[in-house]
Design goal:
Elements (H helix, E strand, L loop, with lengths): L1 E7 L1 H14 L5 E5 L6 H11 L14 E5 L3 E6 L7 H5 L2 H5 L4 E5 L13 E7 L4 E7 L3 H8 L6
Parallel strand pairs: 2-5, 2-6, 4-5
Antiparallel strand pairs: 1-7, 3-4, 6-7
Helix pairs in contact: 1-2
The structure holds adenosine-5'-diphosphate (ADP) and magnesium ion.
Magnesium ion (MG) binds next to helix 2.
Length: 154
Amino acid sequence: MKRAIVTRGEKETENLGRFWGEQLFPGAVLLLAGELGSGKTVFARGVGLGLGVGAPITSPTFTLLNVHRGRLPFYHFDLYRLAAEEELWELGVEEYLYGEGVCLVEWADRFPCFFDLPAARVSFRREGPAARRITFTSDDARYQEIIGALNPGS
Ligand SMILES: Nc1ncnc2c1ncn2[C@@H]1O[C@H](COP(=O)(O)OP(=O)(O)O)[C@@H](O)[C@H]1O
Ligand SMILES: [Mg+2]
């Protein structure tokens, strides 16, 4: 299943993320792809809001992982500076991916370990200064239900 939504402005992308945050279930995984500045962290901030995370959500570029407490634990990865996939195992990524929280991974498309994982894949593309095309795909019914409920004007 595949669905694309164009957002016009940061707030629309945040709201889209918030909707996901409200719908996500324990063990959910969101794999994000798209160039720098395409809106991945803005979307992640929305997911955090939807999960009821109180603390501000910024990019964990230098830490690889930020852990937040919300309705469910929220594990926000940013792999931009990750050189080797092995570092992910040192970080204990499996425990997060197969845990009870929600994992969101920026730059997941760079690392083969995510390729076959049941997940929702979200890709971001700039279509101008304030427009972003955000494409959702999943083979898994649990995510397809959420994708099907997305409101184009959200
Ligand atoms: N429609 C939009 N959705 C998301 N961000 C947008 C949009 N339009 C403009 N922006 C801007 O693009 C930038 C996206 O940054 P960020 O989310 O950190 O990107 P990434 O995490 O993909 O590197 C922000 O400066 C944001 O204000
Ligand atoms: Mg980012």
